[in-house]
Amino acid sequence: MTTTETSFDVNHPVPDRYTPPPAGEMDAIAEVFSDGRLSGGAPVVAFYEQALAGWFKVARAIAVNSGTSALHATLTALEVKPGTEVLVPATAPLPTAMPILTCGATPVIVDTLPRTLALDPTDVERKLSKRTRAAITLPLWGYPTDDTAAAAILTDAGVPVVEDACQAHGTTVRDRYAGTGTAAGCFSTHDRKLLATGEGGFVLTNDPELAERIDFYTHLGHLQGRVHGVNYKLAAPLAAIGLRRLPRLHAQLAARRRHARHILDRLPPGGLLRELAYPDDSQPNYYQLVLTATAHQRETAAALEMLGLPPDSRRYRYRPLHQQPMFAPYASPCPNAEALATSTVQLPVHPNLPEATVEWMAARIATIAREGPTP
Ligand SMILES: Cc1ncc(COP(=O)(O)O)c(C=O)c1O
Description:
Layout (H helix, E strand, L loop, with lengths): L24 H11 L7 H14 L3 E5 L2 H11 L7 E5 L4 H9 L3 E5 L10 H7 L4 E6 L10 H9 L4 E4 L7 E2 L2 E2 L6 E5 L12 E5 L2 H11 L17 H10 L3 H18 L6 E3 L6 E2 L5 E5 L3 H10 L5 H4 L19 H9 E4 L7 H17 L4
Parallel strand pairs: 2-3, 2-4, 4-5, 5-8
Antiparallel strand pairs: 1-9, 6-7, 6-11, 8-9, 10-12, 12-13
The structure holds pyridoxal-5'-phosphate.
């Protein structure tokens, strides 16, 4: 890598939007048009679902029209409804938690273990009740979580776990992909995600009965008049895009991991910044590279923003769930999640970034880590 800065404009933030290289999408859409069937009932949607199930090594994939629909349909299929409660980590962004409200259920906000995204088992135990119908785990920013301890408590209590893997396509947790080790995993394929179809999403599960319930719910009960449903089907042209882009996911993951490694290798040992912790034998997908500042957090965030690298708290108003006005009624103390939200900074490492930009970022971030966020 060179240290040239000529391709980088310091007056603009480093773009965090990734546009994948062409994968024959126009041909795929043309094929759908010549077939004439554009709805979610077209054969290409079933092919896409089979391809997803194969890629993620699960029994069933159900394509839907958004990650929000994936979460709402899964919670509904698990009988989350008024009078029930859903445990959700305080690190959750709004789209993780809003589907709980859509079900008419009560979110119960749970703390995470110190300096990680894993559910705090003690807080889970404290907040479990007879009304708890489901729990959500969240590999936020594509970072693997080790929820083994919380999952054991939830399994004992008969509470199914749903993983919101909307940002975690290709993240691995030991020998499995994120979103494949719980009752169901919910994914988004919104334009910003690693697998992008514009809008869209899918649910993965190895539970055939749950798969059927989600499938019937998202397809108007297949118009059989037996069970209630909504229309959350993914339109055929979007499935065709997903089908073409899915095989490229491995190459994208490799590029993101290479960029992240380049920045991480430059961080001085014992410096101000270190990578967010994640379990051994696991790999983030680097939806974002996440660093935690051990001190001077506010100043570090400000210094990165000055460099055109604003953290999510500034770019997207990210904060712990109970600090969002609409979730304030469900607030309870979650000091670990609060500390994590204020100490983390998120950095783009997607494949569109020129090598020169990654090197520029690595050098600046290493300086902040070594010398502190001096103005
Ligand atoms: C963690 C998380 N959950 C849920 C969603 C909702 O996905 P969608 O935008 O496809 O509805 C998103 C996407 O914004 C997300 O990042």
